[in-house]
Design brief:
alpha+beta, four-stranded antiparallel β-sheet
Length: 162
């Protein structure tokens, strides 16, 4: 059964560090932007499915994990397309919005380059509970940069093909 993220304002946490547990690759179905869909299907074939006009990465036949999740010889989770992973994977466990998603707007608000965002994290991510890691403010900044880069690429693509 598909897990739902437990969205919590970013400011409730102090650090974040990917602990390479593979939880996100097993618990969620990865949403894709149109450009990501075209790129991945062009390179890997039928790795995407569509529901309600939205694109997603397929899961394995048993629906237990992302089709690109594999394990190294020590059993550690590993992404087969790490260097070209989708935006949703790049910014996880951060969820970035232009409008607040709940009533706790102050705790979710994040100002970056004179822009205001509302940032939430998936509290189910075990990387939020590390004692040492990237300060959460820096992690949010990096997630926003990655998010903005993808959004600018989409806008450029739409302008070129309009």
């Amino acid at each position: 059964m598909e897990q739902k993220p437990k969205l919590t304002p970013w400011s409730r946490f102090r650090f974040w560090k990917c602990v390479n547990c593979g939880f996100c690759c097993r618990a969620y179905t990865v949403p894709l932007k149109l450009g990501e869909t075209l790129r991945l299907t062009g390179k890997y074939g039928k790795v995407v499915f569509m529901v309600g006009g939205k694109f997603y990465l397929k899961k394995t036949d048993d629906k237990q994990k992302c089709i690109f999740l594999c394990y190294d010889k020590n059993g550690k989770p590993k992404c087969k397309i790490y260097s070209e992973k989708p935006q949703a994977c790049t910014v996880y466990p951060f969820y970035i919005y232009n409008e607040p998603k709940n009533t706790d707007t102050v705790a979710a608000e994040f100002k970056f380059n004179r822009l205001k965002f509302y940032v939430y994290v998936d509290a189910l991510c075990s990387g939020l509970y590390v004692i040492e890691g990237i300060p959460i403010v820096k992690a949010v900044e990096e997630a926003i940069k990655a998010w903005m880069l993808t959004e600018k690429t989409i806008q450029l693509f739409q302008t070129i093909h309009a």
